[in-house]
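Human:
Focus on the backbone:
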Amino acid sequence: MMWLKFKSLKWGAWCLVSLYLSLLSGVVVGLQYDVADPYYSVSSIDLLIPFGEFFRSLHFYSSQAFFLLGCVHLIAVYGEAQKYSFRDWALLIFSMTVGLFLLFTGYVLRADSTGFSAGMIAEAILKTIPFMGDTLNSLLFDISNRGMQRVYVHHMISLDILWLILAWDHLRRYRVQVADHTVAICLIAVFCFFTAAPIEPEKLGVTYISGPWFFLGLQELLRYFHPLFAGVVYPLLFVVALLYARNQNRYYRALLWFLYVWLIVYAILTFVAWIR
């Protein structure tokens, strides 16, 4: 009964409404962003732009809501999605991966202690990939040489287009009337009006800086394992297992158990990093 009630909630619609809010507020914030002086430009949005703090908060929290609601929606439709072709299922999983990467690049673009450190860690991880690490870093980040230029272009343009291409078939299955979710929109707007999006000053003398909440487990894993395993192999194992965790697969139950164990381990690592 509880599961049926959970599935009946409009997770997908709320996810899309959060996406719309994120995109609209992102245009406002993005137009004020300066890749030549990213930290100052983000700070000045709050101080100098009319309602700048509200729009930055709206973009930050609606983006968080979009990803989290998308994850919940994926869980809610998992049983029904077993009927999807492997291609459709793969596109849906990859769209969630791109959504997470969008969230991550948003953190990096803040260029504060958390954002800059997360970007440099990501750059270091990419460089450990054999044969193609430097090329991938040059395409995706290259913060050491180009600052936030590449990250900004991907966050504002390329990743959004890629997500839309991957999610298009799935989006056509849903019709969302924004007017039907006025209450949810108002609640998000009120929350963002009173809750400022985080931005941290430079922490002089601090040797340990916590990354974004979804990055904490990986950051802790980096303390014990080589960056290639912690930052590439371990996350990829989850994505691959999720791709093939379908009831037509003879290893379906084993893959489900692997996913459960992976999530539990990552949750423990996240908690350890959070209290450190």
In short: The mean pLDDT is 87.
